[in-house]
Amino acid sequence: MAGTLGRIGQLYAIEARIRGKPPDERGKIRQSKARPPFDALQVWRRTIMETLSRKSDTMAAILYVLNR
What is the model's pTM? Predict the structure, then answer.
C-alpha cells in the first residue's frame, strides 16, 4: 500500500508544480510526468479489484473514486 500512496503523492506533487501554467503546458507535463504513476495505479486497481468482494468497503471506496 505504501507504493500506492507514494504514487498518489507523486500525482499531487505534479499537480502542485503545474498549477497556474497554461493548459497546453499542463497537458504535456501530465503526459510525460504523471502518466507513469497513473498507469501504475491503474494496474494496482485492476489487480486489487480481482481479489475483493463486490460488497467490501475497499471495493466500495475504489468504485466511488472511479465514478468521480
Answer: 0.72
Domain boundaries, the chain: 2-66
Average pLDDT per consecutive 10 residues, the chain (68 residues; last block may be shorter): 80 96 96 93 88 92 84
CA 48 – CA 57 distance, rounded (Å): 13
The distance in angstroms from the start CA to the end CA of the chain is: 21
Number of residues in the chain: 68
Q: DSSP labels for the chain?
A: -HHHHHHHHHHHHHHHHHTTS-HHHHHHHIIIIIHHHHHHHHHHHHHHHHHS-TTSHHHHHHHHHHT-
